[in-house]
Amino acid sequence: MRVVELAGIGPGPFAAMLLADLGADVVRVDRPGGAGLGIDPARDVTNRNKRSVIVDLKAADGPARVLDLAERADVLIEGYRPGVAERLGVGPGDCHARNPRLVYGRMTGWGQDGPLADRAGHDIGYIALTGTLGMIGAPDEPPAVPANLVGDYAGGSLYLVVGVLAALHHVRAGGAGQVVDAAIVDGAAHLSSMIHGMLAAGAWQDRRGANLLDGGCPFYGTYATADGRHMAVGALEPRFYAEFMDLLGIPERAPARDDPARWSELREAIAARFATRTRDEWTAVFADSDACVAPVLSLREAPHHPHLAARGTFTDHGGITQPAPAPRFSATPTAVRTGPALPGADAEAVARDWGLPRRPDPVPTLAPNPQ
């Protein structure tokens, strides 16, 4: 599968990386001077397994160069504001005129229509409006910011990839190419489907820190240890809860599980116990148990956890420790094949492999002679 990625930041590059991890030939069209948040291109792992060319879409021949790629591609991904790709001459109409089977993936925060469609935004604003952000954090504190994982990547990138693959399946079954409108607000809202069902059933309160899965119950949350680190507890089922309370050393407190009026008392007792030992000591206590307790690890610690190390959940490539491709396949295993694509480094190889027409370099515009 051939994918053209018009360079951007955040969810678009991540979606293209996921497709590249799965084996697609992804060509990233970088703009002159670069784009993004100033990350060293050699360390931007969201550009791994890709190739890069540089095209100035504002130059006279810029759109034609992108359309040459689109004509030979299965998928194109862009993350501009609505209407920008059309003004640049690389919108769906332009691309489908050259390649009717193309799947045109559009990645935005607000979507292609609606009152906010033309407004700027970032992950935190998108998840704020969907009610997602308001669910996260302690009830007496501002909502906690979950990095940009829930909006950009879960609600954005993953939904774009699902949509692109479904549309590609439609094409390969004999259908026409189409536009996939992946909006982070849509995806983030969709992620909360179960919660909305619980809310309708009266099993979820519309406030933070008052529910089964948002830290409201004392046996599903995090606790500080003696060394200032933390343990995560998810002992929801009765038998797991019973094992948790036994190993924690306060089985006499177990009956408080079924009485929400005693949850604050139970939380204090659990917190007091966790505060008596270090994180690593508690990790040893709960090892090889079904108590559903885990240490809260940092980004640098995670790759060294025995389970993640045994599975190869993280990998090292080019001196950079990074998450390995996921998911896994029994017949077509994935891998980090190449490091981050450096802007423009693959122009000749892409032109050869994709059979691009040779276009003359643009003629520079000279300033008129003042005399």
UniProtKB/TrEMBL annotation:
It comes from the Bacteria. Residues 362-371 have a biased composition (Pro residues). Residues 349-361 have a biased composition (Basic and acidic residues). Residues 322-371 are annotated as: Disordered. It holds the Pfam family CoA_transf_3. InterPro entries: CoA-transferase_III (IPR050509), CoA-Trfase_fam_III (IPR003673), CoA-Trfase_III_dom3_sf (IPR044855), CoA-Trfase_III_dom_1_sf (IPR023606). Gene3D superfamilies: Crotonobetainyl-coa:carnitine coa-transferase, domain 1, formyl-coa transferase, domain 3. This is Carnitine dehydratase. It comes from Streptomyces ambofaciens.
